[in-house]
Specification:
The protein has about 200 residues and is an alpha/beta fold. The chain folds into 2 domains: about 120 residues, 3-Layer(aba) Sandwich (Rossmann fold), CATH 3.40.50.300; about 70 residues. About 55% of the residues lie in helices and about 15% in strands. The protein contains 9 helices and 5 strands. A 5-stranded parallel beta sheet has the order 2-3-1-4-5, with helices on both faces. Helix 2 crosses helix 3, helix 2 packs across helix 5 and helix 6 crosses helix 7. It is globular.
Length: about 200
Amino acid sequence: MLKVGITGNIGSGKSTITKIFAQLGIPIYDADSRAKAVMVEDPILVQAIKKLLGENSYFGDGALNRNFISSQVFKNAELLNGLNSLVHPAVANDFETWVAMQNAPYVLKEAALLIESKSYLVLNQLIVVLADEEIRLKRTMRRDEADEEMVLSRMRNQMPQEEKAEFAQFLIYNNNDLLIPQVMKIHHQLLELASK
């Protein structure tokens, strides 16, 4: 089974495109939401996060204290790298377990940091979604109800999308482009690759 990654910077529209693939019957692994689940479900990971960031990382009921974790890691690159080095391998294992349960010619792994985390290296193909900065900014401000400065600071912390494009076998342009024809073309190419 082919393992295909799909990534793109904030506001590029990864999720919209992933939904089109899902309509075609392709199983989708949402790495970002699975990471949140694994951070609560995996007792070894929970202990490691508490050791790194402190007991306040979790509420008394075991739920993730996202605001506390964000406040710790976004001002401290060392802590952010430490957290990523704990979470990414756990998500990688979760993904492999999930793949083994799928029955399709290929699966899609959607993640914001596929390239940065180097998890694209275990995938067969990579799709990068591109959109102009102005469009991504407006989309994100609308979606997250966030102000421009907040979104711009998040955008500045990401690898430039032009660099991400260099890692991709497939590119999808999502300014105001027609998405379905682009997705269908890639879908047929992936089915062909999967049949070899």
